[in-house]
Write a structure and sequence with these properties.
CATH topology: Alpha-Beta Plaits
CATH architecture: 2-Layer Sandwich
Oligomer: single chain
Number of domains: 1
Helix content: 40-55%
Shape: globular
Order of helices and strands: EHEEHEHHHHH
Length: 192
């Protein structure tokens, strides 16, 4: 019996997360992450998704996508299923790579969108994997901050336009916006 498709709003923006089975790693090395992003590029083209933010962690990932024409459940099934098959083959393993179905949250307004963009790219700092978001190569931060080219599924201009129509001013405002919360993350970690 197949799981029913989720309600999807064409044009909606969704924060998606998927975690490894039993919280086990889903990426074993950088090649796994590169292949995942390559697969995401292809699937985003097929379903015409617009990527706003992403972050690949060790045992989970975050995506923030606008889905102009729907296709969220079908595309996520192709992404997670295809990646799991490829990972099992490459690492000579069997069984589930991902735990439960992906989790999705519909973004309600612009402030929710901005906070989610920031939350996604600060995941590596909260996990103590780095001290600055630009140090983590597996998130959208570097592309939005103007430090590298974006993957084809990622459209940094969609996020940057929320800060300014001037590209260099928008990138500077984006970096300051993320940095403001980065300080709060660092302060929390030192108190713990």
């Amino acid at each position: 019996m197949t799981t029913p498709l989720r309600d999807e709003i064409p044009g909606g923006i969704y924060h998606l997360t998927t975690r490894g089975d039993n919280k086990e790693p889903i990426y074993h090395d950088d090649l796994d992450r590169k292949v995942f992003l390559w697969m995401l590029d292809r699937i985003a083209v097929k379903y015409r998704w617009i990527g706003l933010a992403y972050c690949l962690m060790g045992n989970h990932y975050h995506l923030l996508l606008r889905i102009p024409f729907g296709g969220l459940s079908r595309g996520m099934d192709v992404l997670n299923g295809g990646y799991a098959r490829r990972t099992n083959m490459r690492h000579m393993r069997t069984g589930h790579v991902f735990g439960r179905r992906f989790h999705s949250t519909l973004i309600e307004d612009e402030s929710h969108l901005l906070e989610t963009c920031r939350y996604v790219v600060l995941n590596p700092l909260r996990a103590s994997l780095c001290t600055n978001p630009e140090e983590w190569p597996w998130s959208s931060y570097r592309a939005c901050a103007g430090l590298e080219l974006a993957h084809s599924f990622l459209v940094p201009d969609e996020v940057l336009r929320l800060f300014s129509n001037d590209p260099s001013r928008a990138r500077a405002s984006y970096r300051a916006f993320v940095s403001k919360s980065r300080v709060a993350v660092a302060a929390t970690e030192t108190r713990v």
